[in-house]
Amino acid sequence: MNSDQVKSGVERAPHRSLLKADGYSDEQIRRPFVGVVNSFNEIAPGHVHLQTIARAVKDGVLAAGGTPMEFNTIGVCDGIAMGHKGMHFSLSSRELIADTIECMVSGHCFDALVFIPNCDKIVPGMLMAALRLNLPCIFVSGGPMLSIGQRDLNSVFEAVGARKAGLIGDGELAEIEGSSCPGCGSCSGMFTANSMNCLTEVLGLGLPGNGTIPAVYGERIRLAKTAGMQVMKLLENNIRPRDIVTEKSFENALTADMALGCSTNSALHLPAIAHEAGISINLHMINEISEKTPNLCHLAPAGHHHMQDLMQAGGISAVLKELLDGGMIDGSCMTVTGKTLGENVAHAKNRDPEVIRPLDRPYTKTGGLAVLFGNLAPNGAIVKRSAVKQEMLVNTGTARCFDSEEEAIAAIYAGKIVPGDVVVIRYEGPSGGPGMREMLSPTSAIVGMKLDTTVALLTDGRFSGASCGAAIGHISPEAAAGGPIAYVKDGDQIAIDIPNYSIKLLVSDEEMEERRRTMKLKEPKPVTGYLKRYARMVSSADRGAIVE
Hints:
Elements: H1 4-7, H2 13-21, H3 26-30, E1 33-38, H4 50-63, E2 67-72, H5 78-81, H6 91-108, E3 112-116, H7 122-133, E4 137-139, H8 153-164, H9 170-179, H10 192-203, H11 218-236, H12 241-244, H13 247-260, H14 266-276, H15 283-292, H16 307-312, H17 315-325, H18 341-345, E5 369-374, E6 377-384, E7 394-402, H19 405-413, E8 421-425, H20 440-448, E9 456-459, E10 471-476, E11 493-497, E12 502-505, H21 509-518, H22 529-537
Parallel strand pairs: 1-2, 1-3, 3-4, 7-8, 8-9, 9-10
Antiparallel strand pairs: 5-6, 6-10, 7-11, 11-12
C-alpha cells in the first residue's frame, strides 16, 4: 500500500506514534488510508451541508474495510464574490485547490481518495488534483439546490436590473431575494457548478446521479455511502483516474456538454483538467462537436427547467442514453462503477421528453456552446448560444468600451446603454484582471432592464453559468496581452455571427496597425501576494487559464 511509507516497519514507529495521538488504533492503521477531501465551509450554500456528505462517505469507507481520514480545501462562493474585488480570487482558487490537495495527499501517503466538491471552481480544482495524483478515487458532490417557482440566483440578479430600471419596487425585490435560494446545494440551474458535477459523471469519475440528485434528498446521502464503499473496490482492483479518463472520455464530456447546454466555464475547465492527464483539448474541437450534437436540454438560464427537473426526467444517464442510441458518444469508456458508460446507462429511461428532448426533436440542431473566431478574437471567444435570443444570433452593433466591470455596470444602471450597443469590457482577462472575473451583474442587468434582445456584451473576462443573452467572453488574446480588444474604440462597429462562429471588428487592418502604434496598453493593476504570482504565470483563456 502507498500508506506503508508512513506506517510500516521499525523506522515508521514515530509516524505510528503520531497517528495514535490522533486516536487511530493499530487495526485502523493496518487498513488502507482513504483521504476524504471535503470542501465544507459555512459560507457557500453549496458547501454548508458537506459535513453530512463526508460522514456518509466515511461510513461507506469503514463498512468496506478502510480507514477514512478527512481534510478540507478552500471553496470560494462565486455568487457572494460576484461584482467586487473578491471575484479576482475565484478562478485563481482553482489552482490553489489542486496544489493544496497535492501537498496534503503527497505529504501523508493516502492509498485512495474520495473527493467532495460542489461549487464552481472546487469541482475542476479537485478533478485536476485527481488526475495529477492518479490514485484510486471517486467523486461525490453535495448536489444541487432546489428551485421553487422556477426561481434561482439569477432571478435575484435580474431583479436588481429591473429595480434599477424602475420596473419593480423594493417590496418585490425583497420577496425575490428571500425566495430564490431556498436552502443548501449548488445553485439550481445548469450553471457552472452543476455543469461540472454532471460532466464529472460523464467523465466516469462520479457515480450515476452525482450531477442531479438534489442536496436535500436522502438519496444524496445514500450515494455518498455507496461512493465510500466503491472507492475500496477501485483500490482493490487498482483502477486509477487515468485508466478511466481518456481522450474518448473528454469527447463524451464535450458531447454531453453540448446536449445539456452547460456553462461557458466548461470551456476553461475541461482543457485544464485534460492538461493534467496529458490530453490536449482545443477550442476548435468544441465547434466540431457542437456542429454535430443537438441541444436536448434547456435548463436555466437557457430555459425554465432546473436540476430537479432533469433528475426527475432521468438525469444524466437518460441524456447519455439518447446520445448513445444516436451513436454520438463512446459507450466503451470505463467508469468508477467498474462498468462501462454504456453498461451504466443501458436501462436509463427518458421520463420527460420536454426536459430531455429526443434526438429527432431537439431544441436546436447544434450544441449549447459556440466558439467564435475573427479579427477581434483570433484565438477564440465563447458564448452559450442556447441562452441567446434568436434575434441576437446575428447582430451588428456599436461598441461602448469600458476598462473594468465596475465602469460598465455603472453605465448600464445609469441608463447610458441603449439598444444597438455592444458593451465591451476589457482588462478582465486571466492576467489583466487578474483572475478573469465573472460578469453576472452586467449580463443580468441587461436582461433585467429588457435590453437582452438589442444589446450584446463582449469581454476578455468570463461569465457565470447563470449568464444569458448575447454574452461573449474569454476573448483571446486578452487586452493585457495586447489582443485586439485593447484597441477597440467607442463607435466602432462589431459584427457577431454566432451560427457561423464569427466575431469581427469592422475596422481596416491599416487602422488597427495605427492603433497598435499609438494606443498604449493599460498599466498592470497593482496587486500583491497570490494574485501577483498568478498574474505572472497564468496562461490565456483559450488554453484553459492554466498556471505553468
